[in-house]
Predict the structure of Sarcosine oxidase subunit alpha.
Amino acid sequence: MVGYYDDNYLVAVERRTGHLGFGASPGVARERVWRIRAKRVVLATGALERPIAFAGNDLPGVMLAGAAREYLVRFGVLPGRRAVVFTTNDSAYAAALELAGAGVAVAAIVDSRRVPGEEWVSRAQAAGIEVLAGYFVTEARGCDELASVVVSPREASGVDFSSQELSADLLLVSGGWNPVVHLFSQSGGTLRYDESLGALVPDGSPQAVEVVGAARGDIDHGGEVLWFVPADDYSRHFVDLQRDVTVADIWRATGAGLTSVEHVKRYTTAGTAHDQGKTSGALTAALVAHAIGVTPGEVGSTTFRAPYLPVSFATLAGRDRGDLHDPVRITALHQWHADHGALFENVGQWKRPWYYPQNGEDMETAVLRECRAARENVAAMDASTLGKIDVIGPDAAEFLDRLYTNLISSLAVGSIRYGMMCRPDGMVFDDGTAIRLADDHFLITTTTGNAAAVLDWMEEWLQTEWPDLRVTCTSVTEQWATVALVGPGSRAVLRDLAPALAVDKTSFPFMTWRDTEVAGIPARVCRISFSGELAYEINVSAWYGLALWEALMSRNITPYGTETMHVLRAEKGYPIIGQDTDGTTTPQDLGMTWIISKKKPDFLGKRSFTRQDTSRPDRRHLVALLPLNPTTHLPEGAALLADNKMVGHITSSYTSATLNRTFALALVTGSHPTLTTLNGTKANVTTPVLYDPEGTRRDGNPDEEARHDTDTVDETGAGDSPPRTSDRTSGSPGYSPLSDAVYAGDGSRRTGAKSDSGSLSGFQGPETHPPAPEPSPATQTEPGAAPAHLPAFERSAATQTEPGGARAHLPAFERSAATQTEPGAAPERSAAMQAEPATTPPHPPAPERRSPLDGFFAEFDGVSVREVPFLEQVNVRSGEPLTPANAAVTDGETVTVWLGPDEWLVVGPSEVRGVDVSAQRTAIRVSGGRARELLAHGCGLDLHPEVFPVGRCAQTLLARAQIILIAESDGFLVLVRASFARYLAAWLLDAASEF
């Protein structure tokens, strides 16, 4: 047991294989951490023997009597050949007798008591051991090890001819016993000083704990209290043998005015080594008390902190190691990116494609190629990681008006508006778009890194400041796979893949959205551009994300990564929150005064815009920098100087294929024609919009548009364009093919009457679902065979099984060995990777839905793990908080899971009103007799049937990934977000490898 915390929560470490030596199984964890929640705790922690300080007590060969006894009795080791025992109590006599019985010559027992216990003295004398009662050991002598011991009568002082020097290579010391009160003290218990024991003993605790035996002070060794042997010089009287702290050091500390044992501990470092004061703590406190003239009870003790015993970092890390050291989030398209040579960057926990090198390209060459494709032809990016929040309710528009700086309530249904959120201090918090789906229904997008923070921000304001607003917010980030289709050729590609959609700029104006089918997949297409080019964001159910992407790539579209995205947006002067802002940046600093509404009475941050500091003219503002040498790269973060004074810093820096030069964005104060970096590089200062300042590129090629002109529609009420785009369009979409329909998570269309709230009821019969894909032959395994697929980051013992052992398959998490290339070599590339003009395959394949784990399963001794894919899931909000249930209610094949006071998740084939989150999570069923043991490896909940019975549910963490856990009759159903699914499956395989 290493720690005792609030509410009888204890942490223990089990040592499982250390005693087995080479016989330990390689698949079994060496140590295991147990987290225990107890109704009542009984502490029988015993007592620790304490030393006595005397001259030379640090020599090798001087040890506690109990230690020598353990060497002999437990390990069969003789710690010496000729011994002297120095004791203040009866307990050391047993050690002396046992050593004598093993053949050690015991020269004498030096007992500080004038009248030792008669029984022990008789037994010692019967064994031929001399007992020197009323004597001290005044010095241990020797060079590299103990050679002799000097003993003197306890009244002796100065030169005493009655002193004796005994030859010995072993000196056993016992100064009494201290109850082990560490865990009791950690529980919040108080201590009192027992003068007869010379030790602190338990007094009272606020927790349900009882201390018994020696830990309570039930020690009867007939001893006396002796802390140190008096002498003229205390420089060799050691208190802490590990820190070489002496009695003289304690006198020096108290002489300097220190009276607290905590201060003395820090001054001398006593008790800060490996044993954390177990042998020296009580002695240190007693010496401080002696020095300042008080009792040890008045001095007290140092704080007892966990862990009580040393715990290895590997034990604490557990399975959080290697590629499992931190949860990893991936999109539905991740494996395609990995298989086609993408290099990834970490964006929070997300793995995002950084760039796609071809034929040994370095990063700069690859990014320039991708940029040219986006500016001159057509390119695509996986934008699925952008945060998406469903906001619904009668007061949704009012709620968003209060959060955003610009007006959202005037947005027409079918339109989109770029918006910015500020904190109450007026500083930029996040930006994104608001998509109006109905009068009371919006879809909000956020930056990737701030998705969780924005949702938390919304919930905080709704629950604490505006509880009267009838609004609910639901994360749907992983429900949708989002692909940005960018470039002058994007309209032609979309026209080909979505023949039912009118894509001309009049029918489908900028900052509007349409529901349609793209490549036969139900999709929501938004005309949004973060590049300044003609662009579309195509959103489909995550189950169909890969099918959509492959349909696009079959048109020879160039994929691009986040680095190219950064370059394209920077050329247009679009800021990235968190990179071009630093927590002290206002919208005005970014040149975005236009985004601050003058019509709204109030919004978060409005009052702060009138403060003197936020309205002063010399604030830092966003500018672009053009180095005088067009090939010089300005380092991000570099300070900028004007007249040898720092006036700002560089926030973003890139090489542009379009501008044919390097450039940078920066935050600077004042107006300067030229700025200089610390190394002397000069750059001209200019407007942030370096590319297409008129904003004409976002609508595509006018000549191409004229060839496909169609009927116009009214455009009143469309949303604003992103920042720094001069055009402002307005429009109202024509009839949407999905205006009276909802799409289930599998992409099937359901029709029904629209309710007052904008959600759907009275569903008609669903259309036929596309069939689930059959596992490919490559993923099949025979019973007892080794798994065909495992995440590339983990090839555990589970992957090397003998016949009859574990079997599993899981698609590769990262690039597998088969896709690795030699340095400088080109990975295999499909034609889709080339920047050729878009072409149309003659017979596009039918869309295929894919679950996050592709039907993953694994079987081990006593436990099986299997994905349960394509379950329909609907998030339902009740409005008014209800009594906590912590239960999952089953009705036929439908399970209703309680998530919170006003939130439920309905899982199964049933159709209910709410927010469809079917593709947001996948289900993993963990079943078998050892299912509970497997989950306990990484779940902090007590899963015992008495605590977590069948039908119980909880939102919790498993391997640090957020899950919903449901107890079933033969195990558990784990609902995990799709982005964490492969990480969690890999973790489960690793944890089950010892079964």
About this structure: Confidence is low (pLDDT under 50) at residues 706-842. Residues 492 and 838 are 8 Å apart (CA to CA). The first strand starts at residue 3 and ends at 5. The longest helix spans residues 363-376.
